[in-house]
Design goal:
Largest sheet: 4 strands, mixed
Helix content: 55-70%
Order of helices and strands: HHHHHHHHHEHHEEEHEEEEHHHHH
Length: 440
């Protein structure tokens, strides 16, 4: 490039310190480690959350037990960088204020760690979407959790500046993991609201102000520590500290009032074309077609039978009168994995059991219940128990012969006769008196 006479060449502009820290060094690596660690953790437990928006949100929140100590250790290691390089005295002669130098080193790592957590959260939500059982995403806790993670990184940076040892980072991670575990176990297992990884109950949503309050609690403590360490006027740390104390007091005082019931959990989606009708919790509305298919063998055999319950219900609490409980779909990972019923035969048998006499212990009642269960939806384990009885005592073999004969008799009845017998049977399921049911 040719310069005119007297023209001075411009010196190349130095990159901004934040940009240099953001694109090189330890900060991007720390963010990648957080994302990869959470990815492996979530992938290993995918059976119990993938397909359920609420379970996905809870699993992401529970991952803070690992992510927060990891972020704190990363911040601590970054904070001790100048001591390891023996450049503390050199940085002390810099023109920039101590707080500016602190933030130039701490903010990039904080941003990368937060981005790693958000990346893992976005990946989990995308993994749930194709298998969603109903409702919609629950990202409400994600902002507060991200602030808690960023606060841990900032606090770790302060610790790294203060403690002159390479063991500070692993020891801080260990202390954080133990502390979060203790906080989760506090208050008889319901967890302390002051711990970032407090337990999230099934079918509950946070109140609207929980996220700002938890952000003020964790963020206020981190900001107070940063100002107390690096600000020229350290008294300014009192302001975020006061905000953190006020938010913490509000969280502790409110207790269980931090949560509200999920409106979907109280609603049901029903198929009334069968008898009994099949109602599933609205949180799992997309599973209704699979449940209808699984129970179609039962509802087909009950066509025309009288005195049946009105519906299989799936709502919190005890079923209403003329209802029976639909077999449980939760916790995710047992009967439902990635939006699919894993064992329709077992599910159908449990639905048939719910139609019986419940807790009655009368041997005659139990015999009739097992007979009707065999006709409607045999237990997947029935053949194994029959085999055990066939090789058991004389009494066991005699009981098995009576059962097999009764099963054959019920199956050989005409449709009208069998409907009449089943109607008499179901008329007695409200109690334990089966004297009016004809013997087979």
């Amino acid at each position: 490039m040719t310069l005119a006479v007297g023209q001075k060449a411009k010196a190349p502009r130095a990159p901004h310190p934040l940009r240099a820290e953001s694109v090189r060094g330890f900060a991007p690596f720390a963010g990648a480690v957080v994302a990869a660690t959470l990815g492996v953790l979530l992938a290993g437990t995918a059976r119990r959350w993938q397909g359920d928006w609420g379970a996905t949100a809870a699993e992401l929140h529970d991952a803070l037990v690992i992510a927060v100590p990891l972020a704190a250790a990363a911040g601590c290691w970054q904070g001790g960088r100048e001591r390891r390089r023996r450049t503390e005295e050199l940085w002390g002669t810099a023109v920039r204020a101590p707080l500016v130098r602190f933030l130039a080193a701490a903010l990039p790592l904080t941003a990368w760690v937060s981005a790693g957590y958000l990346t893992a959260g976005a990946a989990a939500l995308l993994a749930t979407a194709p298998y969603a059982t109903g409702g919609g995403p629950h990202p409400g806790l994600l902002p507060g959790d991200t602030v808690a993670l960023a606060s841990a990184a900032l606090l770790g940076h302060v610790v790294g500046r203060v403690l002159p040892t390479r063991l500070a980072a692993p020891l801080l991670a260990l202390a954080g993991y133990v502390g979060l575990g203790v906080a989760r176990a506090a208050r008889s297992g319901s967890g302390s609201p002051l711990g970032p990884a407090f337990p999230v109950g099934d079918g509950r949503l946070p109140v609207w102000w929980l996220i700002p309050a938890t952000a003020a609690w964790t963020g206020g403590l981190a900001l107070a520590a940063v100002l107390a360490y690096a600000a020229r006027r350290r008294a300014t740390a009192l302001l975020p500290l006061a905000a953190a104390v006020a938010a913490g007091a509000l969280l502790v005082h409110t207790g269980d009032g931090l949560w509200r019931p999920d409106p979907l959990a109280a609603r049901q989606v029903c198929d009334t074309s069968t008898t009994p009708a099949i109602c599933v919790n609205a949180r799992y509305a997309n599973l209704l077609p699979q449940i209808e298919t699984a129970l179609s063998g039962i509802t087909g055999k009950l066509d025309g039978v009288r005195d049946l319950p009105v519906r299989w219900a799936d709502r919190p609490g005890v079923p209403h009168r003329d209802e029976v409980q639909l077999p449980m779909l939760t916790p995710i990972g047992w009967y439902v994995v990635r939006g699919r019923l894993t064992n329709p035969r077992q599910y159908a048998w449990e639905a048939a059991v719910a139609l019986g006499h419940g807790e009655c212990t009368n041997p005659r009642v139990r015999e009739l219940d097992e007979l009707v269960e065999h006709y409607l939806a045999p237990s997947p384990a029935e053949s194994r128990f029959d085999d055990l009885a066939a090789h058991g005592s004389r009494a066991d073999r005699a009981a098995l012969r009576r059962q097999v004969a009764a099963r054959a008799h019920l199956a050989s009845m005409g449709e009208k006769e069998r409907r009449a017998w089943l109607s008499v049977y179901f008329a007695t399921t409200g109690g334990c008196d089966v004297r009016g049911v004809p013997a087979l």
